[in-house]
Automatic annotation (TrEMBL):
Protein purpose: May play a role in fatty acid biosynthesis and insulin sensitivity.
Similarity field: Belongs to the enoyl-CoA hydratase/isomerase family.
Name assigned to this protein: Enoyl-CoA hydratase domain-containing protein 3, mitochondrial
GO BP, sorted A to Z: fatty acid metabolic process
Taxonomic source organism: Sinorhizobium mexicanum
One Pfam family hit: ECH_1
Amino acid sequence: MADVVSFRKEEPNGLLLREVNGPVLRLTLNNPLANVLSIALMEALLAEFEAVATSKDIKVIVIAAAGKLFSAGHDLKEMTQHRADDDRGRAFFERTIRLAADLMVKITRLPQAVIAEIDGLATAAGCQLVASCDLAICTDSSTFCTPGVNIGLFCSTPMVALSRAAHRKQAMEMLLTGETIDASTAKDFGLVNRIVPQQYLRQVVDKYAAVIASKSPQALKIGKEAFYRQAELPLADAYDYAVGVMVENMLARDAEEGIGAFLGKRMPEWKED
C-alpha cells in the first residue's frame, strides 16, 4: 500500500474536532458537558460525512468524544424551548429527530468503515449513534442506556439502530426498563465489540483503523453496502442478492489482484478508483 502523508487539523473552538492521520479521519464530539446532539452538532457531522463520502484518501472514520460523556443524546433543553412555538414544537421536533435519523442512515451508507470510540456514558440518541457505527470499542467504565421511558418518551428512533445491533430481547430490555448497563453487559448484548482499559482506548482504536485501512478500499465499499442491504432481506432473498454481489466482486480489479497475490505469495497492490 502506498505511503500516505499524515497531517493533523483541529478546530478547538468548534462543536466537532477534526483530525486526519493518513487514511483515518477522527471526528470528536466537543459539545460539553454532555456532548448533546444539537442541531448544530448533527449538521456538522453530516457535513463531514458528505464531504468524505467520495474521498479516495479516507478509508476509516472514528467518532470519539471529549470529556466524561460520549453523548447524552438529543438536546432536550433546545427541544423544550420550542414548546412555546405556535405548533407546540412539532416542526422543530420533526426537524431534530429526522436529522438524527438521516445522520444514522448516512453512517451505514458511507463507503468507509465507521468506528465508535466510547469513554463514558452513551445514552438515548448517543446510544443510537454507537449502535449505528460499524464497530464500537469502549472503556471498561463506559455505560449505555435508552432511558426515554423514564421521562415518558419511548426511545423509538434509537430503537431502530439498537434492535439491529443488539439481540432483540436485550434491546427490548434496555428500551422497556430504561436502565443503564455497564460495558460488559453491552458487549454481551452485542452493542460493542471490545472493552479496553481507558489508557489503551486510543491505541486499540488506532490499530483497528489501521488494519481496516490496509484492506482493499474497493472490497470494503462493496462489502459494507452488501452487509446492510442483505440484513434487511429474507434469507433466500439475501442469498440471491449476495450471490450477485460476490460474482461482481470476483470480477473486480482488486479481487483479481488480491487472489493473484495470494496465489503468487506476494503482497497485493491496491489501486484507487
